[in-house]
Amino acid sequence: MVPNHMGIDSRWVVEHPDWFIGLEQSPFPAYSFSGSDLCDDERVGVYLEDRYWNRTDAAVVFKRVDHWTGAERYIYHGNDGTSMPWNDTAQLDYREPAVREAVIQTILHVARLSPIIRFDAAMTLTKRHYQRLWFPEPGSGGDIPSRAEHGMTRGEFDAVMPQEFWREVVDRVAEEAPDTLLLAEAFWLLEGYFVRSLGMHRVYNSAFMNMLRDERNADYRKLITTTLEFDRQILKRYVNFMSNPDERTAVDQFGSDDKYFGVATMMATLPGMPMFGHGQIEGLAEKYGMEFRRPRWDEQPNHDLVRRHEHQLFPLLARRRIFAEVDGFVLYDFERLDGSVDDNVFAYSNRFNGQRSLVVYHNRYAETAGRIRISVAVPGHGGSEAVRHGLSAGLELSSEPASFVIFRDAIAGLEYIRPCGDLSDQGLELQLKAYELHVFMDFREVVDDDSLRYRTIADRLAGRGVESVADEVAEIEFASVLEPLRELVAADRLRRLMDARRGGPGERDRAARLGEIEPLIVDFLDAVRANAGGRGTPTARVVRSELETVLDLAVAVPSSTERGGGESVIEAAPTPSVPGNGPVEWAALLGWILVHRASDLLGENAALAAPRGWYDEWRLRRPLAAAFEGLGLDATEIQRALALVRVLLTCEGWYVAAEGLDPLNRFLD
Question: What is the pTM of this model?
Answer without folding.
Answer: 0.78
